[in-house]
Write a structure and sequence with these properties.
Layout: E1 2-5, E2 24-27, E3 36-40, E4 45-50, E5 57-61, E6 73-78, E7 90-91, E8 95-96, H1 105-108, E9 116-120, E10 124-129, E11 142-147, E12 160-167, E13 170-171, E14 176-179, E15 193-198, E16 204-208, E17 213-217
Amino acid sequence: MASWSPTTSNSAAYGMGDERGRAAIWEFNPDGSGVRTYASGLRNAVGLEFDPHTQALWASVNERDMLGDNLVPDYMTHIIEGGFYGWPYSYWGRHVDVRVQPQNPALVATALTPDFALGAHTASLGLHFYRGATLPVHYRNGAFIGQHGSWNRSQFVGYKVVFVPFANGRPIGPIEDFLTGFLNARNEAQGRPVGIGEDSMGAILVADDVGNIVWRVAPAAH
């Protein structure tokens, strides 16, 4: 089994001692034994799921703030056992976050670059690989992402569900809007997508923690 542990701050503001065991994906047996760190340096790896075609573990990661409108991109990436993904010392591979002191150059030198950017401040949380047959065939080899939406960007982004096409076990893009309309004309959130799943009929289910509702998305005939 796998679980994720979020950080206590944006960029280790309270020191690395406060972050011990955080920003990581943990592996453990169903009875709670055998706990170990599977991968680290992932600020908030909220969405975790295995690609049903390749069995690789993937995560959607909600990255850090306060570096401007266009940094740092949230991302989705396949997870390599023992891999380090940068937080807090660097982002998007080996781009050093100078706010973090002291730095750790040796660790940054090992930082892995994510597979696919999902946009800065989109708050990309839920991740689900489509397994059904109800939606058009285009959706049967890709992943849906629930974007909770920005809170500290000059123009709001996110607030939607997007789809990322895959080929040969890798995202090929471009990113596609799947479910939108959660912001009104006054930029007020009418909903904020989080978790993504599917029901036994192959319809997409979207947990919305502002609308306090689960949306079901399927072709009209279903």
